[in-house]
Design goal:
Pfam families: GUB_WAK_bind, WAK_assoc. Its main location: membrane. The protein is of the alpha+beta class and 299 residues long. It has a domain at 97-212. The protein contains eight helices and 13 strands. The chain has helices at 12-24, 112-117, 153-159, 164-170, 181-186, 189-192, 229-234, 270-298, and strands spanning 36-37, 40-41, 61-63, 68-72, 75-83, 88-92, 125-131, 175-179, 194-201, 215-216, 218-221, 238-241, 248-251. The strands form four sheets. It has a five-stranded antiparallel β-sheet with strand order 3-4-5-6-11, with no helix packed on it. A hairpin with a 4-residue loop joins β3 and β4 (68-72).
Length: 299
């Protein structure tokens, strides 16, 4: 019976080694890049999946079951909206004070790359409140404070329920400072000697508008790296990058019919993506063949 089974096949051990080598040399299987977090669209340069979007914006967003968050060294800030035409993102600091709630002071800090590519827009105003008479912004650095559409500290403390506490505790109008991001970027609240802060955006449209109707939060202005994403998108691909080298690439889905346009300048094309997506099925078929051959040998 053994003589009748001299077939021109590889041995079981040879097939096993072949499968291992095939697995180690197979192309990377790309996961789909999600383009929504709840009701907020996620487009280039942003992403919520590693390897998608632009590498400069890597790990900046986190999508939970209910909210999208912008991640910074000082904490997580809820993303309220992203306007891709105006290239702005509106975020809200859950730890800052507003007209309706008074919270302990909290520093707003961004990483160096965030400050460079997605800083607060010029019309985002930081308001330092309940500053001491020795505060640097009232003395040596008083030039960092500016007129904010004719609004005053007295108006701020008198209009908002939570800020009225400053009036009550001091029986006067404590100093405040309307300033820009550069001030809080380089000086902490402790150095500024102000107990609380809040921020508003669209400040150029708030002249004559009382504090109760201000838009509280921050508007960030982002830039979009030019890496040929328009061509990639037209080809059916999604702009992303290699997670190890951070080189730009066009991620193709298993249903795309494009070729090199879906490679983002790399040699990878749709055929390779198809082989990657089909690899588990090929491996399954080869494994079944190897097992069947091993069973025949044992008979």
């Amino acid at each position: 019976m053994a003589n009748q089974l001299r077939l021109p096949f590889l041995s079981f051990n040879h097939l096993t080694i072949y499968l291992i080598l095939l697995l180690s040399q197979s192309p990377q299987i790309f996961s789909t890049c999600r383009n929504f977090c709840n009701n907020i669209p996620i487009n280039y340069p942003f992403s919520i999946d590693d390897g998608c979007g632009a590498p400069q914006y890597r790990h900046m967003l986190n999508c939970s079951a209910t909210d999208l968050f912008f991640l910074t060294p000082s904490g997580n800030y809820k993303v309220q909206s992203i306007d891709y035409d105006k290239k702005t993102m509106t975020i809200f600091d859950p730890s800052m004070s507003t007209c309706s709630i008074l919270q302990p002071h909290h520093d707003f800090k961004m990483s160096e790359i965030q400050s460079a590519i997605i800083p607060p827009s010029p019309d985002t105003i930081f308001i330092l409140m309940n500053c001491s008479i020795d505060s640097p912004v009232l003395n040596h650095y008083k030039s960092v404070c500016f007129n904010f559409s004719g609004h005053s500290c007295d108006e701020l403390y008198g209009s908002c329920t939570s800020f009225k506490l400053f009036h009550m505790l001091s029986n006067s109008t404590p100093a405040c400072c309307f300033t820009g991001y550069e001030t809080v970027k380089y000086m902490s609240m402790d150095i500024l000697d102000c107990t609380h802060y809040t921020s508003v955006y669209n400040s150029d449209k708030l002249e004559g508008v009382g504090p109760l109707d201000w838009l509280y939060g921050m508007e960030l202005s982002f830039s979009v790296p030019d890496t040929g994403c328009e061509r990639c998108a037209k080809s059916g691909g999604t702009c992303g990058f290699d997670v190890e080298t951070e080189m730009a690439q066009c991620i193709c889905s298993s249903t795309s019919n494009s070729t090199r346009d879906c490679a983002g300048g790399r040699d990878t094309n749709f055929a390779e993506s198809y082989r990657a997506s089909s690899f588990p099925r090929v491996l399954y078929i080869l494994a079944l063949g190897a097992i069947s051959y091993h069973i025949v040998l044992r008979r």
